[in-house]
Sugar phosphate isomerase/epimerase
Amino acid sequence: MSASFPFRFGVNEFTTQPWSFEEDVARYAALDVDAIEVCEVKLDPQRATQQMLAAREAGLAISAVQPRIRTVFGSAMAPQPEGAEARVAAFEASLRKLAPLAPGASFVMNTGSAPDGNMEHCLDETARYLRRLAPLAADLGVTLAIEPLNPTSINVETAIWTIDQALDLIDAVGHEACGLCLDYWNIWQQPSCDEAIRRAGSRIFVVQASDWRTPRSGMDRLVPGTGSIPLGVLLHATFDAGYRGVCTLEIFSSNIADSLYDRDLNDVIRDSRNGLAQAWEDTMPH
């Protein structure tokens, strides 16, 4: 990574889907990755404590956690359990179990799909549950990060798809432990995206990066620097907003003929790190 790159470099475990949790830890550490974004689906419920401790012992900060159930309402990625109460209970169980093993981490959340297309109800109920969960997260020493998703996910995974919609939800919760997960792949197409990032300011808790082409499936992302996202502009806006945390690589690459999962994933991580550094350098003011 370039010496001037202002963020620590992390990897979300969805990026290395074919590897086990143990492989993720060993290989990220060997590649000098600074932080891991833990995906609970990769943890063995019987050994989760040991696995999380092993990541920290390998020198990896746990910057964020993707719980097994991370939406209040149903989602295509995790349709069960049904019902908001059951889903929030599952999220809360993950929070109580994993937060003590990941102090300071952000737990990523979203609304889920609006029941019967009723986005107002979905947002009101999500805010109501978050007002209950945010104080618990704070008591456990972690935060919640709300992630607006790309419009390709509307009525499938989300009822919010812009930074400003997410900020409105965060404001409705009104707790300092509730902030924003900023995934460039999801939000780069909104108008004046860089200005919206600057408005988010200190409410940015998590930053995720990959690159874009017209998707061939719902899980089709690229190595940073090989697609259409103006990553340098967004990285600089994020820096201007005051964020100084981890920039996390999050790539999905399923159900496509040229899947990155079929490549050497060590190279995917190296190339992604270099792509982010180059994007930052290319847009440095002169």
